[in-house]
Design brief:
There is one protein chain. The protein is an alpha/beta fold. It is built from 10 helices and 20 strands. A 5-stranded parallel β-sheet has the order 6-13-7-8-9. It folds into 4 domains: 33 residues; 98 residues, FAD/NAD(P)-binding domain; 113 residues, 3-Layer(bba) Sandwich (FAD/NAD(P)-binding domain), CATH 3.50.50.60; 114 residues, 2-Layer Sandwich (Enolase-like, domain 1), CATH 3.30.390. A hairpin with a 2-residue loop joins strand 2 and strand 3.
Length: 392
């Protein structure tokens, strides 16, 4: 009889995290970078105090500073995360047991990823979402396909439901929401995951004390060089405007380092992909179809289903498709959106195509190995250029 060994799974997760952190510590040491572990606070634009212990502080004098403090989970009125039964993504990754029934507030990336994991581990999962669609930042066709597939896997969805409150009663959590007709709907489970987004970690850093300005959402305002309102101090990642993505922050970190070094770097934000790590995965880069419609853009569209791929049939991963959006006059690729097995890896080809302003025809003329998932990209490109797909 096959059984889930949850403690071993958690240990494996912890081991991978430790290996990654150890690798970063090694790189710091290798590159002769001093690391101070503690809470930093600005005293002035060139001075930061770091509380390394409860009764010990160290002072760092700087010429330049990069603020990269990241973000933390958000909540909503009426929902108080006790971190025991009403939890965030942080606690979800360290649960001592697999929930019998998990209520997920939020149908965005984090909610769907963790909901999908626990569904596969045997939990009954219900997702309660305020909007009428999932993953609102991605192309609407991806959200519809993800909804269809995850429903098929057993996850229940309640769209257009506004959560009013969540109450813990012993080992049970009751969530109250209102549907679009204003009718009260109750959900009950042993855990409630609050996944309504994240907010920038910009509090208690002394930012405003030295003149650094924040916007209404608590994000640090920066110029085109990612420099804050105080010269010599830069900000990157989740603390500034834009998608909260690790790879976006990485690009910005390199950008600022090269700027400080006197180089002239660039970032093309339109070429930074977004990925949803469910199974199947979803990924997109460039413009969505809704964005092109809003601009009255003259575009063409092409697509190709995974079920027509030999590689997908072999691995029994036939859900999903590749969708291409291109300029109708010039054929320049404007956006590529994928739902399916290995979408997170496939999107890399799309990023290269977008960054180098390739046309659909350019990619359609490139040989793609057979049998592979990547053939779906070639076929979708052919479909976008005069409906010339070979296998549909």
């Amino acid at each position: 009889k096959l059984e889930l060994n949850w403690p071993r799974m958690r240990q494996r997760k912890d081991d991978v995290v430790s290996q990654t952190c150890d690798g970063l510590q090694y790189l710091m040491k290798k590159n002769k970078i001093t690391v101070l572990n503690g809470h930093g606070t600005f005293k002035d634009k060139h001075t930061i105090t770091v509380k390394v212990k409860a009764d010990e502080e160290q002072t760092v004098n700087t010429e330049y500073t990069i603020i990269a403090t990241g973000s933390k989970p958000s909540s909503i009125p009426g929902v108080n995360c006790d971190k025991k039964r009403i939890i965030t993504s942080t606690e979800a990754l360290s649960l001592q047991e697999v929930p019998e029934k998990l209520i997920v507030i939020g149908g965005g990336v984090i909610g769907l990823e963790l909901g999908s994991v626990f569904n596969r581990l045997g939990s009954t999962v219900q997702v309660v979402e305020y909007l009428d669609r999932l993953v609102a930042g991605m192309d609407i066709s991806l959200g519809k396909e993800v909804l269809r597939v995850l429903k098929k896997q057993g996850i229940e969805f309640f769209l257009s439901h506004a959560v009013q409150k969540a109450v813990v009663n012993g080992k049970n959590v009751e969530v109250t929401a209102k549907n679009k007709q204003g009718k009260e709907v109750k959900f009950s489970g042993d855990y409630c995951l609050v996944a309504v987004g994240r907010r920038p970690y910009t509090e208690n850093l002394g930012l405003q004390d030295i003149g650094i300005t924040l916007d209404e959402q608590g994000r640090i305002t920066v110029n085109e060089h990612l420099e804050t309102s105080v010269s010599g101090i830069y900000a990157i990642g989740d603390v500034i405007k834009g998608a909260m993505l690790a790879h976006k922050a990485e690009e910005e970190g390199v950008f600022v380092a090269e700027t400080i070094a006197g180089q002239k770097p660039h970032i093309n934000y339109n070429s930074i992909p977004e990925v949803l790590y469910t199974w199947p995965e979803a990924a997109g880069v460039g413009f969505t179809e809704d964005e092109l419609k809003a601009e009255n853009y003259n575009y063409s569209s092409g697509s190709f289903p995974f079920k027509a791929l030999g590689r997908a049939r072999v691995s029994m991963d036939t859900e999903g498709f590749v969708k291409v959006l291109a300029d109708k006059d010039t054929d320049e690729i404007l956006g590529i959106h994928i739902v399916g097995a290995r979408a997170a890896d496939l999107i890399a080809e799309a990023v290269v195509a977008l960054e180098y302003r390739a046309s659909s025809e350019d990619i359609a003329r490139i040989s793609h190995a057979h049998p592979t998932y990547a053939e779906a990209i070639k076929e979708a490109m052919l479909d976008a250029t005069g409906k010339r797909s070979l296998h549909t």
